[in-house]
Design brief:
The complex is a heterodimer of chains A (519) and B (493). By secondary structure, chain A is mostly helical. Chain A has helices at residues 11-27, 32-56, 84-102, 111-130, 134-143, 145-155, 167-199, 206-210, 216-233, 242-249, 252-277, 295-315, 320-341, 344-376, 381-384, 389-392, 394-407, 414-429, 431-456, 474-492, 495-505, 511-515, and strands at 5-6, 63-71, 76-82, 284-289, 292-294. In chain A, helix 7 packs across helix 10. Chain A is globular. Chain B has one domain (12-490). The two termini of chain B are 26 Å apart. The chains are: A mainly alpha (519), B mainly alpha (493).
């Protein structure tokens, strides 16, 4: 193991976000421009800090960010640290947050409050990725719930097309559903981590718990609790139902964050807590039920169902935003399936997919929510078709084409690297599932193609006497450029990320996983 | 009784005397001022006298020696000092809120009654004698009935007081019956001597009846289901400051004495969760029922006060888990829980007081609060989220400590199902607390509503409580460490 490295500045990603939230509140709703600038500067500072941390990072080490006693008699520390996997997701958060703020530039209603909730959510997300104390991780995880609720309930739109009822009621329904699902999931996690704390000698340190040998019996009991608890937020089928509605109802910036980073909190928790601390929970039960012999089979199957189910539902949606919402379920199914391969390339692909999907989903929601919906005020694909958007807003069409190509995993994009690795991993350890996952990719191509042609390249007659749509603004251009550049950079030179992820998977933290079911 | 002189007794009860004197002074001063001074000055004078008395009592309580008189009449340990200090602090906050009361002209009497109730709570906490416990409890209850019915302009206030009184009187009967049986079994009123009688290997059937009676009696006091029926009416009908007082201070005192009676007096008669008779199985039943009834009934409420009352029943259910586990760790967690709960509940009622919603307190009346009074709305957010158990607010750590200590009893997760139920019910509670916050933050303000004005002292009090809720959340060790030390010094296993 390398000498412990210190990087106290990383903690400022968290502190700055919360301070930025307060500053935005103090700027007040009457000075929206000040709130926007504060939010953008805060996000940029976070991005700069995370980039510098990634650049200075030496592969395989664990950066200690802060370590202070917090509640010593219960063995709880204020311990922030980062390894390569954390850094990948911290980098993702920085990029997604910045882009999300650029695409929220046109929020005029209660602007300061919007950015305050937004930055509070970002602060919580950074905190989860940087926590190396189980309780601290949980604290940040729950901090993220409340801002999500208000972002959707106050600034959102109706989650379904043509549904009867007041739009406000419907978006509040979606917001409440999301909050309750998240909180219920975190309740399962809480029960699991308390059990681990009691049995593991009353410490909450992730490093100490990772080296505690819990009995196999205990791990098999706690693992599904914690895994499901986190996987709710990762949109695992059948607990995904909050996701499409929540994404569709949320304002663009919040959709980008929800799909971009909040779902990753769940997947990250699955890997960092459930799988890292209770690796033997994945061992075979010794009996077969319905052809399933372990929790690993169960969750791999659920991930697989998510891939095909999400893609199939996306194929028949009329609502453009719901297409993207269900595609998130499908792509996160890949991340979960990748985690369950339990081999190095599959796990690497899963983390890669978390990053890649965060960028691509952000881009897709930016096009649909900000560029199209905010201008046309409809998300109905049948109504968008006669507008000839490819001619009306060509920039949006071009961005969407690139995003769609990345989303279906064309070589040269980050989606390709991620899903290719996951497929190889699945082929090696769960070959019977690889064919179905491949089928999921095909359906993915189909729904993306359908949405693309219907929304942008429909050949029907044009509507007469349409007002010209507002031109694309500079914040939109910048945000789109940032996200497109990221997906291309990572797609063309994947070692930016794999050099961070792979050595961390080889670190002593994941030893239990490697010596157990790892193949 | 040993021969302890009156002078010595006076010296030992100096903190209580300070508060009692403040009560008398507040009443006298108010009578003297009534003719000559404005209402504002009278309130300020009474609040100042009351706060000064409580502050003096805190100072005196910290300097009093740890003692234990025979018969357990007066027992001062670090733990009782801690609880008395907290009670006095909560009373000070309640008194400060009273600065903006408008429902009565009898200011001195109202504040005096709060102070007298505080004296009763201090005696209640500082004794381990069954008779003195009963007397102080009734003393406290009597003050609370009066405080509940103090708003003579509204019939609901009188109705609430009557309901509270009838239920309370009945519970007192149960409690007294139980205490008389306990006395019959042990031949002593001292909890520590009672413990030796209760610790017999085979539980006397008479003892079991006594335990049930005591559980019912205290169940009424702490509003555990199915003995909670007074709570929604009392919370709704009582003046806001009274409701705040009942929800905060009297809850703390009630739980502390409950803990003392069952963990000291009935230490050997706990039984086990798995069907060995004793008080633990009874309390498990009360706990599960309270969590279910409180949280599920709160969903259906359209009145904010009734919602808070039912959620209080739910919180009682969580707290009972701490008594059931009865390890030093779980009792410390319970104290942390009840104190932080009291703060958050006091804060929520304080916001209601600031909004001056006497009588009208539907959820819809909060509509658009975040734009009419952003500060109040933000504080309400903190209080309700703390009650839900969202970090980094103190309510989260209270729940975490309580659940962790309940699973850490070393008997192979015997209370796991109860903790899982509690976690599930916390999820339910998020729903109804968010419904309130939705009105405050999402719903548009009613037409033509002006920004509401809050008296500065009330506002300062609310911000103080909010600050405490956040600080005790971010640095829970400030309070928990203190409680842990006090528990370690005071509880003799």
């Amino acid at each position: 193991m390398l000498a412990p490295a210190l990087s106290p500045t990383l903690a400022w990603t968290i502190y700055l976000s919360f301070l930025g939230a307060l500053a935005s509140l103090f700027a007040g709703n009457k000075r929206p421009q000040a709130a926007r600038v504060i939010a953008l500067l805060t996000a940029l500072a976070g991005l700069a800090i995370s980039i510098s941390a990634v650049v200075q990072y030496r592969p395989g080490e664990v950066l200690t960010v802060a370590r202070l006693p917090w509640i010593p008699q219960l063995g709880i520390e204020y311990h922030l640290a980062a390894d390569g996997i954390s850094l990948v997701l911290v980098l993702l958060t920085g990029i997604a947050a910045t882009a999300g703020i650029l695409f929220s530039w046109n929020i005029e209603h209660r602007t300061a409050e919007f950015f305050a909730f937004y930055l509070a959510l970002i602060g919580g997300v950074y905190g989860v990725f940087l926590s190396f104390d189980l309780l601290l991780l949980f604290v940040f995880y729950e901090i993220a719930i409340i801002p999500k609720y208000f972002l959707i309930a106050i600034w959102g739109s109706s989650p379904r097309l043509g549904q009867k009822g007041h739009a406000g009621t419907l978006r509040e329904y979606a917001a409440m559903k999301l909050a309750l699902y998240s909180f219920a999931g975190s309740g399962l996690v809480l029960a699991g981590i308390i059990a681990a704390w009691v049995v593991g000698g009353q410490t909450m340190s992730l490093q100490a718990l990772a080296h505690t040998s819990f009995s196999a019996h205990f791990q098999m009991g706690v693992f599904p609790l914690v895994f499901v608890g986190f996987a709710v937020l990762a949109g695992m089928w059948p607990f995904h139902t909050w996701a499409p509605g929540g994404h569709a109802a949320a304002p663009t910036g919040a959709s980008m964050l929800l799909a971009g980073v909040v779902m990753k909190l769940g997947a990250y928790g699955c890997l960092r807590v459930a799988m890292m601390l209770f690796p033997r929970g994945l061992d075979p039960w010794g009996i077969h039920l319905l052809g399933l012999g372990s929790w690993r089979d169960v969750f791999a199957l659920l991930g697989l169902i998510g891939i095909v189910y999400g893609a199939s539902i996306a194929l028949v949606q009329r609502d453009f935003k719901l297409v993207i919402g269900y595609s998130s379920v499908s792509h996160m199914g890949f991340a979960l399936l990748g985690l369950m391969t339990l081999n190095q390339i599959g796990l690497d692909g899963a983390v890669f997919q978390m990053f890649s999907h965060g960028i691509i989903a952000g881009l897709l929601f930016a096009v649909v929510g900000r560029m199209v919906y905010d201008r046309t005020h409809t998300r109905d694909l049948n109504e968008l078709a006669p507008m000839h958007l490819a001619r009306a807003i060509p920039f949006a069409a071009v961005v969407f084409i690139f995003a769609a190509m990345a989303s279906i995993g064309l070589p040269g994009s980050s989606g390709f690297i991620a899903e290719f690795q996951i497929l190889i991993g699945v082929w090696r350890s769960l070959p019977q599932m690889a064919a179905v996952a491949g089928f999921g990719i095909v359906v993915g191509i189909a729904f993306t193609w359908r949405a693309l042609t219907k929304a942008f390249f429909s050949s029907g007659p044009a509507n007469a006497a349409e007002d010209p749509l507002a031109p694309i603004t500079w914040p939109e251009r910048l945000g789109a450029f940032l996200l497109l550049a990221t997906t291309l950079a990572v797609g063309l030179y994947p070692r930016i990320l794999t050099d961070l992820i792979l050595p961390s998977l080889d670190s002593p933290l994941f030893e239990g996983l490697r010596t157990g079911a790892w193949r | 009784m040993t021969g302890i002189g009156y002078l010595e007794l006076l010296r030992l009860t100096l903190p209580e005397i300070a508060v009692a004197l403040a009560a008398l002074l507040a009443i006298t001063l108010d009578i003297l001022l009534a003719k000559h001074a404005t209402r504002k000055i009278r309130i300020h004078a009474a609040v100042f006298v009351g706060c000064a008395g409580c502050a003096a009592a805190i100072f005196l309580a910290h300097n009093s020696p740890a003692i234990s008189l025979t018969d357990g009449m007066l027992v001062f340990t670090p733990l009782t000092t801690l609880v008395q200090t907290s009670l006095l602090a909560l009373s000070i906050l309640t008194l400060l809120l009273c600065d903006s009361i408008r429902f009565t002209d009898h200011i001195g009497e109202y504040l005096g009654l709060i102070l007298i109730a505080t004296v009763a709570m201090m005696f209640l906490v500082g004794t381990q004698n069954l008779l003195l416990i009963f007397i102080s409890l009734e003393f406290l209850s009597l003050s609370l009935y009066l405080l509940t019915g103090f708003d003579k302009r509204r019939r609901q206030s009188a109705e609430a007081a009557l309901k509270y009184f009838l239920f309370g009187g009945m519970s007192a009967g149960f409690l007294l019956f139980g205490i008389s049986l306990l006395y019959g079994v042990s031949n002593s009123l001292d909890l520590r001597i009672l413990a030796t009688a209760a610790g017999a290997p085979n539980l006397d059937p008479l003892m079991l009846i006594a335990i049930v009676m005591v559980a019912i009696g205290f169940g009424f006091k702490v509003a555990a289901a199915p003995f909670h029926f007074w709570a929604p009416d009392a919370y709704q009908g009582a003046p806001t400051t009274t409701a705040a007082f009942i929800a905060s201070s009297s809850k703390v005192a009630g739980f502390f004495v409950f803990v003392q009676v069952v963990t000291i007096g009935l230490a050997g008669a706990a039984g086990t969760p798995a069907f060995k008779p004793g008080w633990a199985p009874i309390l498990i039943l009360l706990s599960a029922l309270s969590m279910l009834v409180g949280n599920l009934a709160a969903i259906a409420q359209s009145s904010l006060r009734r919602l808070l009352a039912y959620s209080a029943v739910g919180h009682t259910g969580y707290m009972l888990i701490g008594i059931v586990a009865h390890t030093p760790q779980s009792l410390a967690a319970l104290l942390y829980y009840v104190l932080t709960y009291a703060l958050a509940a006091l804060g929520a009622f304080a916001v209601l007081q600031a909004l001056d919603t006497e009588g009208v307190d539907t959820l819809a009346s909060l509509a658009g609060l975040s734009r009419r009074a952003p500060g109040l709305a933000f504080c309400l957010l903190l209080f309700l989220l703390s009650l839900t158990g969202i970090p980094p607010l103190s309510g989260f750590f209270a729940k975490f400590f309580l659940f962790a200590s309940a699973l850490n009893t070393g008997d192979n997760f015997a209370l796991l199902w109860l903790v899982l139920l509690a976690i599930a019910m916390s999820v339910v509670s998020l729903y109804y607390y968010l419904r309130v916050l939705k009105q405050a933050f999402v719903a548009p303000p009613p037409e033509g509503s002006a920004p509401s004005e809050t008296p500065p002292l009330t506002l300062a009090t609310i911000w103080t409580i909010a600050g405490l809720v956040v600080i005790l959340g971010c640095a829970p060790n400030l309070l928990l460490g203190w409680i842990d030390r006090a528990v370690a010094l005071s509880l003799h296993p």
